[in-house]
Design brief:
With 417 residues, this protein is mainly α. 44% of the residues lie in helices and 9% in strands. The protein has 20 helices and six strands. It has helices at 17-22, 37-55, 58-67, 69-79, 96-114, 142-149, 153-159, 181-189, 191-196, 199-202, 225-236, 238-247, 266-273, 277-284, 316-319, 323-328, 341-347, 354-365, 380-387, 405-412, and strands at 131-136, 139-141, 167-169, 175-180, 250-259, 296-305. A two-stranded antiparallel ribbon has the order 1-4. Helix 2 (37-55) packs across helix 3 (58-67), helix 3 packs across helix 4 (69-79) and helix 3 packs across helix 5 (96-114). The radius of gyration is 44 Å and the shape is extended. The termini are far apart.
Length: 417
């Protein structure tokens, strides 16, 4: 009854929490009725009967018990509609786990009925334990029952696996407790002793309703006496709180190197260090989630550090100034803040032809490809032939008398002086 699958199904009949709650079973932090062998068996038979009434086929009902009616209905639609009423016709459209679930159920049923034909015989129970149930209407812990009735706690847990924390919250509603037959009458006769046994230790924890205050109320007009009393209690507990704080540990991040051993996967490594597999991939820049033996992986983990090793250094300008210094120092005038640069640019007069200046600046920074072209390779003889000059004529460069664009802009701009 304590078996739990990786999907979260628990109990003898492997009910999921949603399915169990739909059948009326209680599943919470204290009670898990999926682990109750009697109650879960009755609900499993009722659930299988409901599924058979839907599909009129036991193989489909068993498949729906495993993967849910929704997946079976989807497989029926994909297989060709409602005319398909056979498990083997929709076999390829079912989940992989359900494909093996129904054949395993058939094999177990075959072994239970035809075991004698294969040389299998049932084992005789050496210790036959007869049990009975009693109704509990009190808040009781297993340790109280074990101490008064002289029963091992492990035996009570084995007979009542539905109580997850060894607590029977009978003050909430009546619950059934399974005990050996000879101990049921003893429990009824000794119930008051069981409830009173070490009651302060096993009683419910105190709680405060929302909106209520557990602290004593402050009486108006007491001239702050209640506040002084509260402050004195805090002062008295200051040393104890300081000792508790010293025993606590702080954490810092440490980068560790993990060498992959044979058979390890990223999930195993992540579970070992308490991190996620996605973080390991990101830290080591892994595209796929596969590693091989000998690979070195960086793992970022948080380690606990004692408070003595953590040094807190105050800033010098804060550490050197005391309250008396601040009280005696004269007030300094507030510095005049300069206006933003954007406002200064808006106040300055803009020169005319500003767009031409910007255009020339951009052209100087990013010249066009046409201006970067290499001049044509012209021989000197060709030039002399064109201009009809003697062959020994020396060519000299003359400055152009034509003004450039920059000179035009500068001459057209008004004198700002």
């Amino acid at each position: 009854p304590n078996a739990v699958s990786r999907a979260g199904a628990a109990g003898l009949w492997q009910f999921m929490p949603a399915t169990a709650k739909g059948l009326g079973m209680e599943v919470n932090s204290l009670i898990d009725e999926r682990r109750d062998a009697r109650l879960s068996s009755r609900n499993a038979a009722r659930y299988l009967k409901q599924l058979y009434e839907i599909y009129n086929d036991w193989s489909l009902a068993i498949a729906a018990y495993n993967c849910g009616p929704g997946n079976v209905n989807k497989a029926l639609r994909r297989a060709g509609g409602e005319g398909k009423k056979d498990y083997w016709e929709i076999y390829s459209y079912l989940p992989a786990e359900t494909r093996g679930y129904v054949p395993a159920f058939i094999a177990a049923n075959y072994v239970m009925n035809y075991y004698n034909k294969h040389g299998i015989s049932p084992t005789v129970i050496k210790r036959h334990l007869t049990t009975d149930t009693v109704q509990v209407n009190k808040y009781i812990h297993f340790n109280q029952i074990a101490a008064v009735l002289n029963i091992p706690v492990d035996e009570i847990r084995m007979l009542n696996p539905q109580y997850r924390k060894d607590i029977i919250p009978g003050d909430y509603r009546p619950y059934l407790l399974t005990l050996p037959t000879q101990q049921c009458l003893s429990y009824v006769m000794s119930e008051k002793r069981i409830v009173d046994y070490d009651a302060d230790r096993y009683a419910r924890r105190s709680y405060v309703e929302p909106g209520e205050n557990s602290e004593p109320e402050i009486v108006a007009g007491d001239n702050g006496v209640a506040n002084l009393a509260q402050a004195s209690r805090q002062t008295a507990n200051a040393q104890t709180n300081n000792e508790i704080a010293q025993t606590q540990m702080s954490e810092k991040m440490v980068v560790k190197t993990h060498v992959v051993t044979r058979g390890e996967s990223i999930r195993d490594i992540a579970r070992q260090y308490g991190v996620s597999a996605t973080d390991i991939k990101r830290w080591n820049q892994l595209r796929r989630g596969k590693v091989k033996e000998g690979d070195k992986l960086k793992i970022e983990v948080f380690e606990r550090v004692s408070p003595e090793s953590v040094k807190v250094v105050a800033a010098p300008e804060v550490a050197q100034v005391s309250a008396e210094t601040l009280r005696e120092s004269p007030l300094r005038p507030m510095p005049q803040h300069r206006p933003p640069r954007r406002l200064l640019l808006q106040r300055m007069p803009l020169p005319p032809n500003l767009h031409l200046l910007q255009k020339l600046r951009l052209q100087s920074l990013h010249p066009k490809p046409s201006r970067l072209r290499r001049p044509p390779d012209i021989r000197c003889a060709t030039v002399t032939h064109w201009r009809k000059l003697p062959a020994n004529t020396e060519l000299q460069s003359q400055p152009s008398s034509r003004p450039t664009d920059l000179e035009k802009v500068l001459t057209s701009a008004p004198d700002r002086a």
